[in-house]
Amino acid sequence: MTDPALTVEAVLTDDLRDWLLARPRYPLLAVLDSEGAPNQSVMWFDVDPDRPDTILMNTKIGRAKERFVRRDPRASLAFEEDMTWVALQGTIELDEDRESSMRDIRALAERYGSNPDQFTGQERITMRMHVERVIRHD
Amino acid sequence: MSDPDLTVQAVVTDDLRDWLMAELRFPVLAINSRDGAPNQSVMWFDLDPQRPDTILMNTMVRRLKYRQLQADPRVSVLFEDGLRWVAMRGTAELDAEFEPALDHIQALARRYGADPERYAGQERVIIRISVEKVIRHD
Predict the structure, then answer these.
(1) What is the pLDDT of residues B79-127, one digit of tens each?
(2) What is the CA radius of gyration of chain A?
(3) Is B130 in the A-facing interface, judged by CB distances under 8 Å?
(4) A81 shares contact with chain B (CB less than 8 Å)
(5) B69 touches chain A (CB under 8 A)
(6) Hey, is A132 helix, strand or coil?
(7) pTM
(8) Is there a contact between A29 and A39 (Cβ–Cβ < 8 Å)?
(9) pLDDT in tens, B62-87
């Protein structure tokens, strides 16, 4: 990298976790569509309390996003606050456990001040992103 | 798509142009790295006054981004306002005429309240993104 404002790290440091969780953030997930072109959407997220360097997200079974991730698990997740931003690069693992995935989306809804009952009856899937690289721009 | 909050259209409509310019926005550009994995970064942007459905950005010739876009011009650009967001899919055309590209980054710097002089002498390139698909989430 040639930009002095960019730093690259391999792990989620404690101060980065604190920054991520300082307020409800709406990160941008980029995955690859069925032709390999970038596809972006805004997500709810949480830091996985049980696994280091892991971000939890959740989607609905049958969404394009689920198909895209199954086809190619490589992803980027960007958090921005004007020109201060952090991009995480890594791979997504899908958690096929429907019950724990439903618990996860309900917990995410509560974290974001939304109604967990809106997801009742849906088939949900948890996406667990393993962070391999952190790019920070301050 | 099965999400009722999503609408898809082919062009940048007048009301969308107004929304894009209503305040200083910091879109996130997603491109593919050389190995095909998605990469994201926060950018300055402007609308092309001459061409409809065209978003302008600017980077340095020596940046990785320039080489990555040369290798794969498919991009996604996302503008976020909390959970209201707009993603645009398109193709980037690179214009590496240094003088117009320098004028352009200096105009962008003025628009974003930065110092245009810090770009003097840089070899810059205009990234001209032809928008092919607009996905709105309200």
Answers:
(1) 998 778 999 999 999 998 999 999 999 999 999 999 999 999 999 999 9
(2) 15
(3) no
(4) no
(5) no
(6) strand
(7) 0.93
(8) no
(9) 999 999 999 999 999 999 987 789 99
How many whole angstroms separate alpha carbon A71 and alpha carbon B46?
Answer: 34
Determine whether the interchain pair B83/A40 forms a contact, defined as Cβ–Cβ distance below 8 Å. no
Pairing of β B74-81 and β B28-32 = antiparallel
- The encoded tokens of residue A79 equal 């958090």
Contact (CB<8Å) A74/B39: no
A60: how many CB neighbours lie within 10 A of its CB? 16
CB contact under 8 A, B42 and A63: no
B2-43 per-position pLDDT tens digit: 566 788 888 899 999 999 999 999 999 999 999 999 999 999
Structure tokens at B81: 């306002």
Q: What type of residue is A42?
A: V
The reply to whether residue B41 touches residue A3, judged by beta carbons under 8 angstroms, is no
- Provide the ipTM: 0.91
